[in-house]
Backbone:
């Protein structure tokens, strides 16, 4: 069984994508961490992304006039990045490097086709002439002569694997319509050349994997079929060229429609994913991503892509990556062991109500089908009793699972008390394999009831579900919309703190609600104040120290200026007398927004719609938090659920980017902008002074390591 799960956008690819990918995507490679990917565009730029946060961690570009000509890869042994620009110029750098002009450079003697990085074998460099070198060997003599193996053939595809401790490289070439396959074991310098069996159609895409001392090469042909070719790794023959025969693995057709595939990847031994356009007679072509079961020759699932793709498909860590319109899209997937029931679809009892939306049918079907195969019963041990017990067990399992859907349907018109009591009973005895599916069904049933009956809102059960269950926005997408409509601030605060996948539009809507409510209304609400009380109490304890020491280059009394007189009477004093521009309830809610995950690309357009007065209020609070952070040695607010200084700075930059012109023209913002300017100037001055003594401090540290200091010593050092 295979299924496509939730999807999200990793980054934009157009001129406004903001990550240097305006030239289109050349390739995507795994990064140094399983959650990181390296994107290389068709121009000058490589970008490292953290997938779970949809944020770039680093971006590097070569000079104008230079072009990156093969995908940038990560050397997993040294955690360095390796790139080739202008076909022959090799560059190697680390995360902390910024300017690629200043990193390691080597000019090679031949044009590079591709660099393949292996987790334990180091990078392999494949040249256009077919020569292969490990990166270490190549760096010993960058100008060494590279042999030309393929002569007039053009390399179309390549891939590298590890066979034990031996790196193996396979690549396919084309010449005059004929296709050839080369297999090279790099360490022992063993090379074998094969020719693919000819036919009318031509291979368009390749992929391969190693199993049982064979390389299994899969080829997607132009006749809308996938073929399998087996290549032995242990080759004893001395023949110069062998003909590789192929066998049909899969026809990409279903119900009269044919999939015109452009690229594909192997998911497991029974499933492949194909990206292409689905064409039915008399209908318009539709681009889509599909997963096929090769064991049973069936289409498992598909997703239509109306904005079009580039035809490229990558797969890492159970995630698909492909371009969709002007963005790079990520779709998660899951694959389970193939069974006949999973391939052809589950049957359901026509006499029972339609409960497919309430039940995890995958678990039910796989459990029923797998149970008989897991136990073997001797023929003389009472088969009738055994079969009857299995039948009864299956019937009980089906009855228990179907009761979820039946219960929710029966409770549709039940009273509020009965409805909530039955739901609590259901959740208390929910089986673990189906718990997430049942939670989603229950939350959907509750939110649907809330929308159908405006006076109905079971706040207690919603809070209980969000606090005690591992939920996400995608599992109950209507929950926060209902909470916004009811102005349930406590529930919204918890959702912002717990849900990792809240859309930027919902985050913005929460922000506008928190900023628009009056202080009187907020004081009557019950929200968690831990993120506010903690650092106020700590500051109160340190009151007598604060005004005597200039910490992190900033003294609040010296830099405060005239802003204190301009703060409205709604401000609230913290423990040390500093004035907070918002009350504790609003501050706690805004902290939840600051800590939520977001993508700048998609949040910024919404922030531009924020009213000017709310911008001033929010920016004043952010400035207040930044001052609080900078008064502490470690620039960290204590307590739970407190925003970090990086989160505070990111939001300040976002607000200023979205409203800078308005803020400059707005009289009410003049004092705030002046304070921000003074604060930043003080910080720059402080770090400038630190940088002047950085060299002396490093030398002092080096001297201390060299000396054997006894229990007591006095030493005078002069810093010049």
Residues:
């Amino acid at each position: 069984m295979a299924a496509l799960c939730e999807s999200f956008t990793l980054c934009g690819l157009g001129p406004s994508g903001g990550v240097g990918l305006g030239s289109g995507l050349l390739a995507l490679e795994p990064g140094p961490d399983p959650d990181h990917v390296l994107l290389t565009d068709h121009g000058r730029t490589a970008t490292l992304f953290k997938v779970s946060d949809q944020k770039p961690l680093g971006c590097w570009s070569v000079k104008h006039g230079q072009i990156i000509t093969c995908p940038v890869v990560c050397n997993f042994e040294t955690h360095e990045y390796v790139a080739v620009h202008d076909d022959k110029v090799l560059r190697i750098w680390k995360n902390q490097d910024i300017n690629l002009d200043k990193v390691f450079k080597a000019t090679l003697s031949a044009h590079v086709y591709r660099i393949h990085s292996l987790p334990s074998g180091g990078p392999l460099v494949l040249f256009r002439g077919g020569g292969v070198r490990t990166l270490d060997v190549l760096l010993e003599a960058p100008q060494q002569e590279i042999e030309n193996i393929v002569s007039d053939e053009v390399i179309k595809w390549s891939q590298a694997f590890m066979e034990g401790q031996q790196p193996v490289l396979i690549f396919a070439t084309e010449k005059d319509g004929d296709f050839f396959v080369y297999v090279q074991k790099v360490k022992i310098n063993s090379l074998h050349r094969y020719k693919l069996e000819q036919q009318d159609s031509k291979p368009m895409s390749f992929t391969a994997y190693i199993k049982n001392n064979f390389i299994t090469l899969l080829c997607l042909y132009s006749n809308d079929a996938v073929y399998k070719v087996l290549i032995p790794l242990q080759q004893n023959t001395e023949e110069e060229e062998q003909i590789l025969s192929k066998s049909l693995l899969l026809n990409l057709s279903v119900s009269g429609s044919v999939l015109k595939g452009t690229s594909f990847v192997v998911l497991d031994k029974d499933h492949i994913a194909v990206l292409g356009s689905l064409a039915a007679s008399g209908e318009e072509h539709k681009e889509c991503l599909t997963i096929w079961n090769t064991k049973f020759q069936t289409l498992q699932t598909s997703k239509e892509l109306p904005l079009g793709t580039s035809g490229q498909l990558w797969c890492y860590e159970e995630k698909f990556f492909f371009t969709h319109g002007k963005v790079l899209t990520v779709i998660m997937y899951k694959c389970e062991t193939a069974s006949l029931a999973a391939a052809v679809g589950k049957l359901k009892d026509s006499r029972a109500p339609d409960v497919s939306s309430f039940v995890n049918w995958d678990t039910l079907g796989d459990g029923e089908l797998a149970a008989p195969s897991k136990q073997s019963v001797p023929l003389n041990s009472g088969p009738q009793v055994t079969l009857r017990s299995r039948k009864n067990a299956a019937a009980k399992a089906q009855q228990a699972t179907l009761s979820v859907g039946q219960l929710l349907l029966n409770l549709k018109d039940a009273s509020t008390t009965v409805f909530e009591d039955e739901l609590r009973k259901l959740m208390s005895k929910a089986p673990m394999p189906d718990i997430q599916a049942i939670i989603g069904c229950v939350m959907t049933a509750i939110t649907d009831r809330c929308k159908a009956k405006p006076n109905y809102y079971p706040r207690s059960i919603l809070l209980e579900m969000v606090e005690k269950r591992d939920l996400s926005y995608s599992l109950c997408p209507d929950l926060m919309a209902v909470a916004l409509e009811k102005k349930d601030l406590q529930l919204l605060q918890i959702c912002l703190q717990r849900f990792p996948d809240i859309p930027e539009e919902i985050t913005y809507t929460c922000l506008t609600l928190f900023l628009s409510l009056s202080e009187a209304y907020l004081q009557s609400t019950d929200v968690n104040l831990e993120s506010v009380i903690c650092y106020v109490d700590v500051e109160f304890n340190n009151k007598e120290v604060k005004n005597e020491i200039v910490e992190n280059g900033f003294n609040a009394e010296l830099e405060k200026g005239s802003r204190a007189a301009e703060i409205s009477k709604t401000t609230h004093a913290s423990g040390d007398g500093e004035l907070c521009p918002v009350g504790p309830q609003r501050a706690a809610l805004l902290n939840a927004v600051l800590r939520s995950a977001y993508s700048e690309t998609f949040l910024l357009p919404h922030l531009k719609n924020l009213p000017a007065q709310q911008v001033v209020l929010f920016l004043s609070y952010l400035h207040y938090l930044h001052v609080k952070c900078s008064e502490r040695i470690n620039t960290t607010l204590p307590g739970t659920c407190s925003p970090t200084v990086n989160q505070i700075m990111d939001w300040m930059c976002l607000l200023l980017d979205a409203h800078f012109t308005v803020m400059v023209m707005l009289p009410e913002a003049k004092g705030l902008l002046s304070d921000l300017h003074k604060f930043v100037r003080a910080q720059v001055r402080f770090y400038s002074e630190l940088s002047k003594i950085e060299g002396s401090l490093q030398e002092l540290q080096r001297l201390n390591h060299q000396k054997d200091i006894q229990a007591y010593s006095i030493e005078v050092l002069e810093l010049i």
